[in-house]
Amino acid sequence: MGNLTIAIDGPAGSGKSTISKKISKELNIVYIDTGAMYRALTLKILKNKTNIYDKAEMNKILQNTNIDFKNNHIFLDGKKVDEEIRNNEISTNVSDVAKIKEVRKKLVEIQRSIASNKSVIMDGRDIGSFVLPHANYKFYITASIEERGSRRCKELKEKGYNANLEEIIKEIEERDRIDSTREVSPLVKCKDAFEIDTTDKTIDDVVSEILGIIRGDN
Ligand code: DC
Fold first, then answer.
1. 13, 27, 95, 113: which is deepest, by most CB within 10 A?
2. Does a structural domain hold residue 218?
């Protein structure tokens, strides 16, 4: 059998990454969190105080940045940044970085090259529609905004951060708005994607549902 490719898309906080991680373990395939790549680049941009509207500055940073995955960890210029990329400053800035055409070109190239020679489950916003249009399976994962906000709130509190539900909901709505209305590969539900609303489902329910669809086919 050839390589298996699974594309998972959906808005912020829908449960994509938790679900994708579990499926990757079950199927023993590589998990690629493309959101983490946009976050890593945003981290570098914030640290370097790069003006994202200055093309020359952006080209320079894109040429001099190395982002990759090793054993499910994300590395920015050789340094592991899994934790750092989750902070609030990154969350509020990442969508503006992710809408830049040159940024997407560079990161999509890396994503496609990772998927070119192995089985992968990749999650993001444009995986089924653009990065891997020929994926064997495409899923579109959603949940109500209230549910997505309260999941995120709980996660932050568990990590010891202050979290205000209303503010988090506003931040997620703003991110969804930018991600869905941008010019270059916005978040869309592909016609050939299975849509799963996780609002009233547990993670394990959704994982079983997806595995059922994949295994049921073979
Ligand atoms: O999945 P996440 O919340 O970590 O993603 C962070 C941001 O990156 C998200 O707001 C939009 C952007 N993103 C994107 O534009 N395309 C992807 N394939 C993945 C993420």
1. 13
2. no
Position 217 in a domain: no
pLDDT digits (tens, 9 = 90+) for 21-58: 999 999 999 999 999 999 999 999 999 999 999 999 99
Residue range(s) defining the domain that contains residue 121: 5-211
In the chain, the amino acid numbered 203 is I
**Has residue 160 been placed in a domain?**
yes
Measure the CA–CA gap between 2 and 65, rounded to whole angstroms.
32
pLDDT digits (tens, 9 = 90+) for 151-197: 999 988 998 888 899 999 999 999 999 999 999 999 999 999 999 99
- Pocket of ligand 1, candidates 19, 43, 110, 125: which has the most ligand atoms within 8 Å of its Cβ, to mutate? 125
This model's pTM is above 0.85 = yes
Q: Count how many domains the chain has.
A: 1
Among protein residues, the one with the nearest Cα to ligand 1's atom 3 is 12
